[in-house]
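On clarity, I found the account of how folds are encoded harder to follow than it need be. What matters is that the chain and its backbone geometry are given together, residue for residue. For the editor and my fellow referees, an illustration may be useful. For illustration, here is how one protein appears when written out as sequence plus structure tokens:

___
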Amino acid sequence: MGWRLVEAQHRVATLPLVDTLEEQELLERLIEETEPPVPEPCRHLHWLLSTPFRYRPSPHASRFRRAGDPRGVFYAAEREATALAEIVFWRLLFFAEAPDVPWPDRALEFTAFACDFATARALHLMEPPFDRDRALWTHPADYAACHALAEAAREVEAGLLRYESARDPEGGINLAVLRCETFAARKPRARSFRIWKVFFAASGVRAMRERPADAVAYGRESFAGDPRIAAMLWERG
């Protein structure tokens, strides 16, 4: 099982543009028709699962996906807390690279959900022989070795990479899904959906979940292992 967090903006973003729910449904269908087609192996999946495989290649690399690579990767984590730490890190990195952008005056909202995986071939990077190259798999910014590994994994049709999070202060485990066939069910777990509200400020980050109740705080030092965050301007307008 894996957890993933996404921005809670789907459908809500179109609501102010219409007068009724029926009009919103029509608008959502029209928007869907303009989107790139879902790849054939992923068409049976719920949109939350298929989206990372659908859209045009990103000009920015991720840990197991080269910039411009048309093949998607679905990133998740074994624990909800690790998935939360990952998304908080990436939002902080945005602010680190945009020092003139003020902190949000309200909480950012994210939806957490869980899904199941099943594959005959997976690589566990914390186990031999891969663990000897831990520094490569967890480097904060250099993904070259990870890209080469992902390419080799695809060649042998591995469906999943299990690896140590380079972002989670508690050292959680991440999952990288390389193939849509790796999903054990076409939809996320029905009872897994949870809403997180995340507050960014000069003192750090606070994340709150109402049901079930939970709260997590990340201080300025939480992600300082990454030099880009360590050098970030925290005091801003």
About this structure: The chain has one domain: 2-230. The CA atoms of residues 44 and 175 lie 21 Å apart.
